[in-house]
Design brief:
SAF, NAD(P)H-dependent oxidoreductase, about 425 residues, NAD(P)-bd_dom_sf, single chain, DRL_cat, alpha/beta
Length: about 425
């Protein structure tokens, strides 16, 4: 963990890493509190949110009360130099101001996230993204645009994709070949909606639509698509395998066809109810009989698959460390390695009628499933990241995967332009 040492040096030198953040929701408030109290050598200089009172609340909950509302880059720059917390509703201020080392997208809003990410790149700023929805939709294109701008676009530690990637990198670094990257869930029901999830959301102070996206499989599909794009892995069936396995994750070493995994180049997957959860796992192979002997000695079994896992993911606790890795080590946590491998496709949650308009992610009308990018392109499947606001041209039965031909897409959206550019840039 070289970055904790480097952060302490920045603290000692009086030169903290200065961060700007978009969003002031549940996770963003946690990040604010974490940086304020547990990350020496880092300062959250400014929060941008359309509702300024929510931005103010994030700081105040962290015990920060000297807060300036700013409307110009000059005013924001003055706050950064003075070490005074700032809030604004203008996202361009964070992108254009001098003095910020990195930006965080903690919004989960696809259209908004696309615009601020491109503006950040244009102004030479790197982005740590908690916006899995955006990343899974156009991440490969954004990675290419970041490279062209000489900045870094990366997902974050704490969320499952970043934790999986850390584990994947570790497993590769000790000489094994990862063949399954997996996510451990407690619940999977594609028909959950904000009404069924309202009580849970209220209990934890979260948004019921966001909670629904966890329960109905949309979020895990976005997350595993990101992992696939970062590793070159794929899925061996639409929606992934998704076993209901109530035992220990180690038992899954006997559940996969290793030759199929090798042929595919590895797959992303998930389980429901496995222990220890809620964490992530990597199943990997080793071809050296001498090393297989050592792995057996070290209680990992006889193979051909060996189980590695992290029994937790700590979300906002680890996001500031992702910023430190980027700024101080130029090390991305997780990003696409080339073109897209796996897409997330929109699927009817209920019978949809002609004229219905698809609501937001985690809503009442649709859920997302993983599919190979090649099949998604060939069959003209509608990416989940484009589904919100689309109007049905015809009736579609429940559980049908939507296609571009089924819907009218809203006009003049940036995300549609980026997706078209990505599809042109990376042919299936």
């Amino acid at each position: 963990m070289i970055y904790d040492t480097l952060l302490k040096k920045r603290e000692a030198d009086g030169n903290p890493v200065r961060v700007g953040m978009f969003g002031a929701g549940f996770m963003a408030r946690g990040i604010t509190n974490q940086i304020a109290h547990s990350v020496p050598g880092m300062v959250l200089s400014v929060i941008c949110n359309r509702n300024l009172e929510k931005a103010r609340r994030a700081y105040e909950e962290a015990g920060i009360t000297d807060i300036a509302e700013v409307t110009s880059t000059a005013a924001l720059a003055d706050c950064i130099r003075a070490g005074r917390a700032a809030i604004t509703s203008d996202p361009m201020l964070l992108c254009e101001v001098e003095g910020l080392d990195c930006l965080i997208d903690a919004t989960g809003a696809i259209e908004y996230g696309a615009s601020i990410t491109l503006a950040a790149f244009k102004n030479g700023k790197s982005m740590v993204s908690m916006n899995a929805e955006l990343d899974a939709t156009v991440g490969p294109l954004l990675k290419r645009k970041a490279d062209e701008a000489g900045v870094i676009f990366t997902g974050c530690d704490g969320d499952q994709p970043g934790v999986e990637m850390n584990l994947y990198r570790f497993v590769k670094s000790i000489g094994l070949t990862p063949l399954v990257c997996g996510n451990i869930k407690g619940l999977q029901d594609p028909y959950r909606n904000p009404t069924t999830q309202e009580g849970f959301a209220k209990q934890w102070g979260q948004d019921p639509y966001m909670v629904t996206s966890f329960a109905d499989g949309t979020k895990i599909s976005f997350e595993q698509a990101i992992v696939a794009n970062a590793t070159g892995m794929t899925v061996n069936k639409r929606g992934m395998i998704g076993r209901d396995h109530r035992g220990h994750i180690d038992e899954l070493t006997q559940s996969y066809d290793v030759e199929e995994l090798r042929k595919l180049g590895g797959i992303v997957d998930y389980t429901v109810g496995s222990k220890p959860g809620p964490g992530v796992f990597v199943l990997a192979a080793h071809d050296d009989p001498k090393q297989q002997h050592y792995l057996n000695l070290y209680k990992l079994g006889t193979g051909p698959l060996y189980s590695f896992y992290t029994p937790y993911h700590l979300c906002h606790f680890e996001v500031p460390l992702s910023v430190a890795r980027l700024v101080l080590c130029q090390d991305a946590v997780i990003q696409p390695i080339a073109g897209p491998m796996v897409d997330v496709v929109a699927t009817a949650k209920v019978d949809l009628a002609e004229g219905d308009v698809i609501d937001t992610l985690g809503g009442y009308k649709s859920y997302g499933q993983c599919e190979t990018y090649a099949i998604s392109r060939e069959q003209r499947l509608l990416p989940m990241g484009l589904a919100e606001g689309c109007r049905l041209r015809r009736a579609v039965p429940k559980d049908t995967v939507l296609t571009y031909d089924d819907v009218e897409i809203p006009a003049d959206r940036l995300i549609d332009q980026l997706r078209a550019e990505q599809d042109k840039t990376f042919p299936a």
